[in-house]
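To whoever is on call:

I kicked off a structure prediction for a single chain this morning and the downstream step that reads the tokens threw a length-mismatch warning. I double-checked the sequence; it's 308 residues and nothing unusual in it as far as I can see. Pasting both halves so you can look.
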Amino acid sequence: MIDLPEPLAVLLLAVAIDLVLGEPPARLHPVVLIGRLISALKRRARPSRTYGAGVALLVILSSAAAGHLLIAAGDLVSFLGLSLGIFVSAYLLKSTIAIRCLIETSSEIGRLVEEDFEGAKKLLPALVSRNPEGLTKSQATSAVIESLSENYVDTVVSPLFYFLLFSPLGLGVEAALAYKATNTLDSMLGYKTEELKNLGFVSAKLDDLANWVPARLSLLAMAAARPRRAGQVLKIAFRDHDATPSPNSGWPMAAAAGALGIRLEKPGVYVVGEGGSNPTTKDLAPALRLVGTAIALTLITSALLFLI
């Protein structure tokens, strides 16, 4: 029997759960439960940065602490000669990554852009924060590719980065959960509306900080996934990364634009890959292959690092 390092066994099990079973039911999904906690705290919080900082701290620490307690409880039970804690850890880690969901959702909406454009526009807000009305097919295709590349960081690179970073301390899963709590806080509170601009300020800044390194590391995987255009990946990413309002999302988006030789645009907000061709639905399959290959390389690299 192969004796794998425990973090590697947890990672492999988590990826297997994700690819085979997909997302767990909402009532059992840790990230959904984190979202419910955020919603409950939001209703009770005053719209101030101080309250926002308190909400963020409470959600992040409680998510990591709950994960730690569940794993510790699982370690008290054996199953098939293995600690149940390994399976609990794998389930919790899986909840922070969403490989199958990312690929399937992007693929489905991309298919609808070609076959049922009006239906696709109804689903686009689930991927991107823009009004789909008035978008052309090219702009809708751009939105799908932008979301695919940006979410590659949020749902794969970042949680695995923190899992790898803190595993030597025995806190890899807890760190991945803390990251996911941070990311969920930003997605729910980090808007510049009158209601949320103060309450969500700290959440937005923490998410920017948490994704700073992973967003830039994503360039390496993108370049390796398209070696013949690696030079363009790096050139466009370093040229256009600051075109987006976010300090991080521009890196994977610009890398994807360089890899595919296309121009990505959020009308009236930003353009990355200027000089490339306007995307068509024919670019969706190469985009999915690009991100799928980058994900595979990320997983392989993560696994190898545990064997060093």
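Update from on-call: the warning came from a stale cache, not from the record. Cleared it. Sanity check on the structure: The longest strand covers residues 264-266.
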